[in-house]
Amino acid sequence: MIKENLETIRTRMAEAAARVHRTDEITLIAVTKNHPVECMIEAAACGVTDVGENRVQEALGKMEAFPDNHLTWHLIGHLQTNKAKQAVAHFDLIHSIDSEHLLRAVDKEAGKIDKVQDILLQVNVAREEQKSGVEVEEFPQLCELAKEMPHVRVRGLMCMAQNTENLEEVRPVFRIAHALYEDMKKKFSEGQICYLSMGMTHDFEIAIEEGANMVRVGTAIFGPRNY
Ligand SMILES: *Cc1c(COP(=O)(O)O)cnc(C)c1O
Question: Is the pLDDT of residue 67 over 80?
């Protein structure tokens, strides 16, 4: 099942890219939260190189069960400052930096282990109350602060669209996120800003059409999650 699903998704990704004449690389992050490590191992055997987890604790268990892994690990869920230490110790890219407080905590913990942590800034472009992400108005300040931090390196922007039946409603959200991302490139060193993380199972094709180069897909690969 996982193998077939991955083939289907890769085809759909390529078709979405072709519709807008894109030839740049687009990374598929397989979101394995709430699925057992066996699913991750199977996905890796099918060529998946990037995995996404929402919770630090769950991810650590899977890393232990999968010691000889060469995967790139993405933390995509909300991060609490008291988990910053573990997150920094184990993740390659943290997508969910959404406040000054969290940014400072990650910088501090990375400093302790002499690491420069790659991060994305999560922006609440959809302006949903229950969604995390820094407000669009506060985003420039967060960028400025991040620039001063020696142990974090901002690589781009992450956003989540609203969950809606009418998929075309998400397009303007992704379009704004893309504009913010292009703006960011001018603020940081050349080449530093290179990831626009947006698009999930229900909207990854629209995200790709609007410029995403990282999509985070769970359900369409592994099936529904059991909570
Ligand atoms: C769970 C999750 C995903 C994947 O969602 P699917 O709809 O299962 O593809 C992507 N991004 C974030 C931040 C998530 O929490």
Answer: no
Residue 227 maps to a domain: no
* Ligand 1 lined by 216 (C-beta under 6 Å): yes
Ligand 1 atom with least separation from CA of 222: 8
Rounded Cα–Cα distance for residues 54 and 191 (Å):
27
Tell whether ligand 1 has an atom less than 6 A from the beta carbon of residue 199: no
pLDDT tens-digit readout, 72-108? 999 999 999 999 999 999 999 999 999 999 999 999 9
Domain of residue 203, residue span = 2-221
Tally of residues, the chain: 227
Residue type, 92: D
* CATH at residue 108: 3.20.20.10
E strands, 40-176, in order: 50-53, 72-75, 93-97, 117-122, 152-158
Strand 117-122 vs strand 195-197: parallel, antiparallel, or unpaired? unpaired
pLDDT digits (tens, 9 = 90+) for 5-45: 999 999 999 999 999 999 999 999 999 999 999 999 999 99
